[in-house]
Amino acid sequence: MLDKAPAAQITNWLKSFAAALDKGDIDAAMDLFQDECYWRDLLTFTWNIKTMEGKTAIAAMLRATLGSAKPSGWSLTEEVSVNGDKVEGWFTFETAVAHGLGVVRLVDGRCHTLFTSMTDLAGFEERKGATRPLGVVHKADPDRETWSEARAREERDLGSTVQPYCLIIGGGQGGMALGARLKRLGVPTIIVEKNPKAGDSWRNRYRTLVLHDPVWYDHMPYMPFPEHWPVFTPKDQMGDWLEMYAKVMELNYWTSTTCTGASWDADKKAWTVELDRDGEKVVLQPKQLVFATGAYGPPRWIDLPGKDQFKGEIIHSSQYTAGDDFQGKKVAVIGAASSGHDVSVDLWESGADVTMIQRAPTTVVKSDTLMEMGFEIYSEAAVARGLTTEKADYLSASIPFATQAPIQKALYDRIRKRDADFYNRLSASGFAIDFGPDETGLMMKAYRTGSGYYIDVGASDLIIDGKVKVKSGVDIETLTPGGVRFTDGDERPFDVIILCTGYESMHETVAEIIDRETADSVGPCWGVGSGVRNDPGPWQGELRNMWKPTAHEALWFHGGNLALSRFYSKFLALQLKARMEGVETPVYQRPS
């Protein structure tokens, strides 16, 4: 019988678990788990990002990986916490090739969720803190090379006389975060960005764009925003920060560069990648290729019957920059998620007559409500409690996707009760609201489809007040020369149609750059296999293809919002570093 004291429970559980694994006694290890149990592993056992659900799946993983992982040194690291019926403890451990950090949650002395993650590769740790570089050789040397000279040599040689080990396509926050991680690990990397300057991917967006997530959630790796930084970052300020970040983090960052083609040589185990670098053709041969074009691929264009007869302008939100050109015009915004709302506000502020065409219900949550109730661990109060962004990241990652739905449903039950008057007024305006097919709200929509939600920072009041009109629940029958006719017979004049219809999966970018066969072999990115619309089953338990081995060797995907890019860039970088150094990386259940 395990001791009832919380710290003793965790310590005894770790001791019993370690003893069972040392003996290779899988059955004894399974006796330490609840019947309903989950183990989420980031690389340490599986060299994958993988969640095992249930004893059978956990036992199968251990039988396949225990011999190579060789775990040891399980040790409780800090004070244990109690949350309801769960006792939670953080621990460190080692494997044959890495250092690890984990979180275990016990119910009645047995494990309900176990989280294990790699923090460093043994022998290839980042040089930081006490091991940081000295920066100077304290002796006279006529052949001394200064920092600026060494940096200029690196920029000159990499990509010409020296091939990068890794090439990252996309220089937004995702590409930069991964590039910074790889730089600290000594992995020669080039990031290619189509825009003229780092940060332009933000600067080029519509004039009024501001991040909807708070500053504590949005830090970049190694370099948090300063304490005076606004809670919600304006897009041009974000662009300037990223431009600075690329320079200070010494990234090898090629601007005005597009990838025109890529092919894999299975014999040489290398890519041949063709680039247009500011009009010059460059061919690189990296060993690893990473697509970091956000969480998505090309813009999604929907079929609009009668579009050939429409006399006005049709653009996608990716082409929209400001509402000044649309002053006084009648504009239809097709789409009612984040971009649809933001574009509608910008148009209204610029003097346009705006109608939002809502094709499906939208999950809406007020920003201040979400800040208070949904970002508890990413806040100034959390920082005051000693909960750093890094620790909050691990805490979030330690919760398996399969257990998040009931947590999110309970949260949105409270949110709907708190803001009932707001939702009543928004519904009365003709705007269709939902909270997902299982009432789990915004976060689950973000994981499942990356669409269908809006954090309200002002657009909802315009809709409630009728300043932005809404046409909801009725399909478009056809475009007419002067506007749109709907299936209910309603016909409205429009000068401009803006498609806020989202983006395709990132694997469609692979189809454009490599080929259709390769894209189809790896399949779509994002989604967890929930079975809801646009997230087909079977259940994955993790985001498809993100930050982990894909069905194609040496082809990777990296992206997501700032928080996901920050956290998972570490684990993708560790996988790439291990491969460069020849560390064995036996992947458990790589996609076929």
What's the SSE blueprint?
Elements: H1 6-23, H2 26-30, E1 33-42, E2 49-53, H3 55-69, E3 72-76, E4 81-83, E5 86-94, E6 98-107, E7 110-121, H4 147-157, E8 166-169, H5 173-184, E9 189-192, H6 200-203, H7 235-248, E10 253-254, E11 257-265, E12 270-277, E13 280-284, E14 288-291, E15 296-299, E16 313-316, E17 330-334, H8 338-349, E18 353-358, E19 363-366, H9 367-373, H10 380-384, H11 389-397, H12 401-418, H13 420-428, H14 441-448, E20 453-456, H15 459-464, E21 469-472, E22 476-480, E23 483-486, E24 491-493, E25 496-499, E26 503-505, H16 507-513, H17 516-522, E27 555-557, H18 562-580
Parallel strand pairs: 1-7, 8-9, 8-14, 9-10, 14-27, 16-25, 17-18, 17-25, 18-21, 19-20
Antiparallel strand pairs: 1-2, 3-5, 4-5, 5-6, 6-7, 11-12, 12-13, 15-26, 22-23, 23-24
Q: Could you write a compact summary of the structure shown?
A:
31% of the residues lie in helices and 24% in strands.
Structural class: alpha/beta
Number of strands: 27
Summed up, the helix count is 18
For the largest beta-sheet, the strand count, sense and barrel status come to: 7 strands, mixed
Query: Which spans of ≥5 residues are poorly predicted at pLDDT below 50?
Result: none
- Shape annotation: globular
What is the end-to-end distance?
Answer: 43 Å
Rg from Cα: 26 Å
Mean pLDDT: 96
The fraction of residues assigned to DSSP E strands is 15-25%
The level of helicity is: 25-40%
Pfam families: Pyr_redox_3 (PF13738), SnoaL_2 (PF12680)
InterPro entries: Auxin_biosynth/cation_transpt, FAD/NAD-bd_sf, NTF2-like_dom_sf, SnoaL-like
Organism: Flavimaribacter sediminis
Keywords: Oxidoreductase
